[in-house]
Amino acid sequence: MKSQSIIAFILALALPMTVVGENSTVKNWSKDNVLDVDSDEYCEYRHSLGIPCCRDVEIVYIDGFTKYALLEDGSYYACGFAFPDEEVKEDEMFGDYPYCNGCETNYTDKDGSWNFIDETWCKVSEKKCFKICEPIKGYQCCKDSSTEVISKDNDGSWGIENKKWCLIQTIPEFNDFEINASCTMDGSGINKLLKYVQFIFSYEENVNFEEKYEIVSILLNDNPVNLDNITYFSKYFRFYTSNYLETNEIKMILRDKTTKQKYYKTFITGVYRMFF
Ligand SMILES: *[C@@H]1O[C@H](CO)[C@@H](O)[C@H](O)[C@H]1NC(C)=O
Ligand SMILES: *[C@@H]1O[C@H](CO)[C@@H](O)[C@H](O)[C@H]1NC(C)=O
Ligand SMILES: *[C@@H]1O[C@H](CO)[C@@H](O)[C@H](O)[C@H]1NC(C)=O
Ligand SMILES: *[C@@H]1O[C@H](CO)[C@@H](O)[C@H](O)[C@H]1NC(C)=O
Ligand SMILES: *[C@@H]1O[C@H](CO)[C@@H](O)[C@H](O)[C@H]1NC(C)=O
């Protein structure tokens, strides 16, 4: 086994509260030399310590970096680290239709938004596109979202482009309750070494968020976030990423699972660093 990996791994495991300085043993920490928790090497290593590796147990959940197994006595057991896959895999087709490259749309139905380009319809990707306007009743969205609002009704805000009425906003801002976003880098071992931060979205205690809402897309500084890697808790949900900036703009589209109504919400947050 690569000694560098072991050292790095033991450091991260044994000294979770230690900030590893630039002159520490781990000079070049990259995902390539972090142990793969499912590898033979890692299992051998755990076995040599008399403890199971992830492969020996059934994983019940993965949160950020940690894979957990449920033991017979009902307790959770951390069998190793897992690294979030940040890639958002692009679905290639929606049924018989390809996904569009852009976010423009001519038409909306129960499946979402569509665009007619090159003689064929393509499906607008909800994961990639943040839209606060979808065409309704045959009216198109204004090409320029800064078009002057001339009138407002239940369908949204209306403007005029090319002498035709167009919609400016049809998706309302989410205000069922308050959601606060924050971004934290804790100085403990692995998060700092791997330069991961966690984005936390906190809300009221008495909301079963996951049951009531579905997150349609999150764009972090215009990059889609892998929604599979969101973990829900009773007061907040969160995801880990290393793709952050000092000031982050988050755009979110969510849907009420019961009414199917879509909402948008935007957040700006800096990075809060906690060092131990
Ligand atoms: C790292 O080592 C260099 C050269 O030995 C030294 O100048 C520097 O102060 C050290 N940095 C830390 C954080 O210890
Ligand atoms: C760091 O590790 C990567 C992959 O293991 C390697 O390609 C790269 O050259 C290394 N960089 C340094 C400065 O050692
Ligand atoms: C992140 O999502 C991908 C699937 O898109 C999954 O394979 C991976 O295990 C997830 N990572 C974590 C840490 O949950
Ligand atoms: C849809 O929009 C594209 C440009 O985005 C345009 O070329 C096409 O003619 C439009 N189709 C309809 C049916 O409006
Ligand atoms: C959101 O932030 C505001 C201002 O900091 C605070 O007063 C409020 O309690 C927070 N709400 C939640 C649900 O965290």
From TrEMBL:
Superkingdom of the source species: Eukaryota
CBM10 domain mapped to chain residues: 85-125, 132-169
Signal peptide, first to last residue: 1-21
Single Gene Ontology MF annotation: hydrolase activity
UniProt xrefs under InterPro entries: CBM10/Dockerin_dom, Dockerin_dom_fun_sf
Native source species: Anaeromyces robustus
UniProt keyword terms in alphabetical order: Hydrolase, Repeat, Signal
Pfam families: CBM_10
Protein name: CBM10 domain-containing protein
Gene3D superfamilies: Cellulose docking domain, dockering
